[in-house]
Amino acid sequence: MLSRTSSVNYIEINSLSASSFCQIGDSTEIHLLNKALADRRQYPFFYGREGNFDDYAIFNEPIPHGDYEPIPVQTWNEIPLIRVNRIDIKGCSFSSVIHVGSTCNVYAEARIKHIRELINDEPSKEAEAGTSSSASSQASSSE
User: Fold this and answer.
1) Whole-number CA gyration radius for the chain
2) Region (Disordered): which ranges (predicted)?
3) Are 25 and 6 in contact (CB under 8 A)?
4) What is the bridge-based pairing of β-strands 97-100 and 21-24?
């Protein structure tokens, strides 16, 4: 791995969360992992056994990895310096990395399952067809 000096004059990050980080400088390996289960219910009644990642296939499926063929590269840095003047970032989340420097391997994984349990959450035929006649017919029938 190349060994270089990383220099950042100014960096501003508004939000850095959920298994994410910022690194200025070299690293050998970066491992990022985030699992999230978001259960939204119209009526907030919970049984106490929610939140088991093993109950959902998305958290157990293997991550596909491609077959990579190494590409021979020869690099010569007369001045081994990475120089950055300014970085402005709104936010970084869910197994993301802000990295100024060299690294060999990055392993990042984010798995998120969103569940919505709403009363009478079945879509109408009009909603499936993409029309909005149901809203006008409901409004006119209630007058």
Assistant:
1) 24
2) 121-143
3) yes
4) parallel
Mean pLDDT of the chain: 79
Token digits of residue 10: 């100014």
Residue whose C-alpha is closest to residue 26's, from 70, 79, 80, 75 = 80
Q: pLDDT digit string (tens) for 46-83?
A: 777 777 888 889 999 998 888 888 888 887 778 888 99
Residue 139 CA neighbour count, 13 Å, CB half: 5
The residues, any chain, with a CB within 8 Å of residue 16's CB and separated by 6 or more, are: 22, 91, 92, 93, 98
Q: Residue 10: which of 77, 128, 76, 100 has the closest Cα?
A: 100
pTM of the model: 0.62
Range of the domain at 45: 5-141
Residue with tokens 């919505």: 116
Please report, to the nearest 10 degrees, the dihedral formed by the alpha carbons of residues 108, 110, 111, 112 taken in order.
180
**Tens digits of per-residue pLDDT, 88-105?**
999 988 888 999 998 888
